Amino acid sequence: MPEVKQLTPAATADMGVAIEGAEAAWPQQTSEAVLPAFNSYQQNTRCIEVFNRGTVPFDFTVGTGKPWLRVTKPVKLEKEQRLLVSVDWSKAPAGTTRVPITISGPNNKQVVVQAVVENAAGGKSNLAKGFVEADGYVSIEAEHYSQAVNGSTVKWQTIPDLGRTLSGVTVFPRTITAQTPGANSPHLQYRVQLTGSGPVTVQAYLAPTLDFTNTTGLRYAVSFDDEAPQIVNLHTGLNPDNGNRPWEQAVANNIIIKTSSHTLAKPGEHVLKFWLVDPGVVLQKLVVDRGGVKPSYLGPPESFSGATPAPKAADASKGSVGQR
Q1: Which of 15, 64, 159, 291 is deepest in the core (most CB within 10 A)?
Q2: How, if at all, do strands 110-119 and 38-39 pair?
Q3: How does pLDDT run across 82-95, given as a tens digit for each residue?
């Protein structure tokens, strides 16, 4: 049994403020309080928690630097209140704007939270090509590819409800030999819009599959645009023999996450490619991380996409390329 301590709040009114995406609380925290960015494609809502460190209820006020930034009306606080912050996108200026949210409480305590508002010209009406980066990442469910390139005897297929969030995508039949990735070999394409250049990592969320070939482990490959595919081994460090703890955890969590590193020369539109190497690899999700991914059990939710919805499966009778 770990040590247990009892905390008794002070018999006073003492305001604390916590914001979405941060583990700290203000005004005790000395760094700047900045909410995760608002994005006109996702048109998301953020939250601020105002709480009482003491036991005496108090009144507090909230003011925003711009009228188009909207915040829940505060009420007399006994324990805590969640403030929802949203943007009136019809009035927000184009480009990136920082707007202060000032929260004032008892004992002259004041916390200023910065809201970063990213308003692309046209907002949702200006549909982006592919999945749009927000909060420093792009998250994509495997079945939402923009194009599936099949082979003469190989077909990509979606398996509904396989995995932890939506589905899995893999190739059939399982009897094919290992493939050399590149050119027009079987692969999935995902169109993404990134706000910056430089190093990125790609996290592939994969179903825990035994190496039924009993060789070097099952492999896949990842690349951006025209770069050479980078081969990744699903089973590196996951030998299931002799009670291997990492393999046990992968099976218990129903996921294996493997990472590849890439460098992009410019921001904007890119094509992320997931290549077939060995049969038996089942992809559930891809996450392109530019430094914004936070620890979580299921991984970040899927990003906004301006792509037009399309059928879930490619029709092999109509050619080797499936469109989404």
Answers
A1: 15
A2: parallel
A3: 999 999 999 999 99
Question: What does each C-alpha distance from 92 to 63, 66, 96, 121 come to in angstroms?
Answer: 17, 9, 10, 10
Q: Pick the closest to residue 314 from 170, 185, 147, 107 (CA basis).
A: 147
Q: Can you give the pTM of this predicted structure?
A: 0.80
Long-range pairs of 234-238 with CB within 8 A, sequence gap ≥ 24: 234/206, 234/209, 234/258, 234/281, 235/211
CB atoms within 10 A of CB 126: 11
Phi, psi for 223 (deg, rounded to 5): -155, 160
What SS3 state is found at 316?
helix
Summarize the chain as % helix, strand, coil (round to 5).
5, 40, 50
Q: Please give the angle made by the CA atoms of 181, 200 and 187, to the nearest 5 degrees.
A: 20
Tokens 């393999």 map to which residue?
A: 247
CA triple 16-21-25, angle to 5 deg: 20
Structural contact between residues 118 and 40, judged by C-beta atoms closer than 8 angstroms:
yes
- The CA-CA-CA angle for residues 265, 269, 270, to 5°, reads 65
Q: In what order do the strands lie in the sheet with 80-87?
A: 15-19, 46-52, 80-87, 69-71
277 Cα distance to chain centroid: 26
Query: Within 13 Å, how many C-alpha atoms sit on residue 84's CB side?
Result: 5
Q: Which helix (H) or strand (E) holds 249?
A: helix 245-253
Among 12-21, 42-51, 183-192, 240-249, the range scoring the smallest mean pLDDT is: 240-249
Give the distance between the most distant pair of CA atoms in the chain: 75
212 burial type by CB count under 10 A (0-12 exposed, 13-18 middle, 19+ buried): exposed
